[in-house]
Write a structure and sequence with these properties.
- The chain is of the alpha+beta class and about 140 residues long.
- The chain contains six helices and five strands, in the order H-E-H-H-H-E-E-E-E-H-H.
- The chain has helices at about 5-10, 25-30, 35-40, 45-55, 115-120, 125-130, and strands at about 15-25, 65-70, 80-85, 90-100, 105-115.
- A five-stranded antiparallel sheet has the order 1-5-4-3-2.
- A hairpin with a 5-residue loop joins strand 2 (about 65-70) and strand 3.
- The radius of gyration is 15 Å and the shape is globular.
- It starts with a helix and ends in a 6-residue tail after the last helix.
- The relative contact order is 0.22.
């Protein structure tokens, strides 16, 4: 009812939240924006990133990968669409993340849709429609 930033990044999101960001990548960041880099843009998703996080003392509690799709657009944009669960402080949350980079890997575009796993399951058709409507033009 009254959206706030902490609803998106706090430990629990009982209602759907969406966040879109477009960011220019500097030359030092461009090289790290691989497909796995896009998957791990927000939270550690790949097994390697979760192992690194665990070695640093951050455990991937309740992690479950639900969707992992590669995306390619006709204009050279490439990206990933991942849907995954994390337990953030006792509440299982679902993250639906779509990330694109342009052909030069100079700009990253991300759409994140998040809510509790129960909320995401109950509203999956609606949230899938939001996630798949994300369009980036070069």
């Amino acid at each position: 009812p009254r959206p706030q930033v902490d609803h998106l990044f706090g430990s629990e999101a009982s209602q759907p939240n969406a966040y879109v960001v477009v960011r220019e990548l500097d030359p030092s960041t461009q090289g790290s924006m691989s497909l796995d880099g896009m998957r791990n843009l927000l939270l550690p998703v790949t097994a390697e990133a979760r192992q690194e996080a665990a070695a640093g003392g951050v455990e991937a509690v309740g992690f479950e990968l639900l969707v992992d799709d590669l995306l390619e657009e006709a204009d050279g944009m490439r990206g990933v669409h991942v849907v995954y669960n994390y337990d953030l402080g006792g509440s299982l949350q679902t993250f639906d993340q779509t990330v694109f980079v342009d052909q030069a890997t100079s700009r990253v575009h991300m759409l994140l849709v998040r809510c509790s796993a129960t909320c995401y399951q109950d509203r999956s058709d609606e949230l899938h429609e939001v996630a798949t409507s994300f369009t980036v033009k070069s």
